[in-house]
Amino acid sequence: MSTSKIVKSDQVNVARVLQMLREERRCSRTDLVRRTGLSAATISQITNGLIGKRLLRSAGTQSAGRGRPVEILEYIAEARFALGIEVHREGVYGVKTDLFAKPIRDHHLGPVASSSEAVINSIVEWVDEVMADESAADCIGIGIALPGLVDQRSGEVKFSTEFNLSQVPAVDLLESRLSSRPLATNRTYAAAMAESWLGAAKEIDHLVYVRLENSLGGAILIDRLPYWGSNSAAGSIAHIPVQPSGLPCRCGSSGCLDTVASGAAIERRAREEIKRGRPSVLLDGPGGLNAVSAERVVRAAEGGDQVSIDVLNETCEWLGIALAGCVNMLGPGMIVLGGHLGRIGGDLLAKLVDDHTRPRVYAMSQHDYQVACTTVGQDAVACGAAATALLATISQSVSLHSPLG
Fold first, then answer.
1. Dist. CA 374–CA 139, nearest whole Å
2. 3-state SS, one letter per residue, for 193-260
3. Alpha carbon distance 36, 34 (integer Å)
4. What are the residues whose beta carbons fall under 8 Å from the beta carbon of 314, sequence distance 6 or more?
5. Please, are residues 219 and 137 in contact by the beta-carbon 8 Å criterion?
6. Which of the listed ranges 4-8, 47-51, 83-87 does the model predict with the highest average pLDDT?
7. Looking at residue 405, what is its pLDDT?
8. Strands 56-64 and 216-222, how do they pair?
9. What one-character DSSP code corresponds to residue 39?
10. Residue 267, pLDDT above cutoff 70
């Protein structure tokens, strides 16, 4: 076996133990051996390392029947902290979290100019302000969620349309100005990690996450770890072709899912229906047709507006076509609909997506997954960035398939 495969196996073992400790908070080494299937020697090595990092402590002993009492280990969620940062058009928003990636305090800085220099300066300023009253030794990791495609090995932003970050070595630039090397990730993957650590997917091993915003985003978690693929671009559900002769897509292709199922597509289709003369509550209030938005469509659909229901139903049909392929290929335990529209979509959105996905799924897989809307709030991306940094620092890997280093 190659050295890289041995290292990767060790990293995954640490991640598995970390997951169980987060879930149980307290357990013995014997429990860890039984639950993970790892050897006693491996568990001892991992737990001793976590104790050395001040992530575990002894919480006394308890009787083990006829044998001698066993030591109970406790995950110390409050002993240290992580920082999670989201960069978006309105500015830099982030959170200080405990070791469960639960927010302790938040901080907002903005707005941010589009240049790479302005983005880097704003991130550094945010960290400096938050760390002013903190000990650097207590910060276990800094995670930064950026818009665009981030190379998980180098920390370079390979492509970004929201800021002038394409081909920018963001992590190297930040490391030179911060007390430690941060971890950069894609915003959608950060949101998926938040769902796994804090939300609807806390007990799900394999997850497909769809971020429903003005444009679509996607992420894949396998064994609760991010799967980016060999080019850090896995999970790009927005660019699955679903309509060969469809509209041009922002990626340069045509007929991608983003052109028919994004927030922008919902808004466009709702306006088209109203222009055809169909009555709708979407026209109520100031602004008229110009005030129609994807958010209003989703809310009006829940209120029974027929135009909005029809538009949302068509959107979910396109999503169902793409997601059925994801289920057949990946076999996830859950599909989570996140982002702003996922947060407000509720049961109606989840039901419509499920109704259009399940009939297209291979019969043997139809009962093995569920569809849910996100249960994490607006700080999902920032909390997920912190979770990703925690995982990377503790296990020295953020993926089964793309180890750091």
1. 28
2. HHHHHHCCCCCCCCEEEEEECCCEEEEEEECCEECCCCCCCCCCHHHCECCCCCCECCCCCECECHHH
3. 6
4. 260, 269
5. no
6. 83-87
7. 36
8. unpaired
9. -
10. yes
* Integer Cα distance of 399 and 405 in angstroms: 12
Give the angle subtended at the CA of 218 by the CAs of 108 and 373, to the nearest 5°: 75
C-alpha span between 62 and 68 (Å, rounded): 9
Contact, 101 vs 82, CB < 8 A? yes
pLDDT value for 396? 59
Per DSSP bridges, beta strands 149-150 and 26-28 are unpaired
CA dist 158 and 347 (Å) reads 36
Q: Quick check: helix, strand or coil at residue 1? A: coil
DSSP 78-92: TTSEEEEEEEETTEE
CB-neighbour burial class of residue 194 (10 A; exposed 0-12, middle 13-18, buried 19+)? buried
| Residue bearing tokens 């009492």 | 69
Q: Which of 54, 29, 28, 53 is nearest to 39 (CA)?
A: 29
CA distance 204 to 35: 16
> How deeply is 315 buried, as exposed, middle or buried, from its count of CB atoms within 10 A (0-12, 13-18, 19+)?
buried
- How far apart, in whole angstroms, are the C-alpha atoms of residue 87 and residue 113? 11
Please state the pTM of the whole predicted model. Answer: 0.88
Antiparallel, parallel or unpaired: β 81-88 and 139-146:
parallel
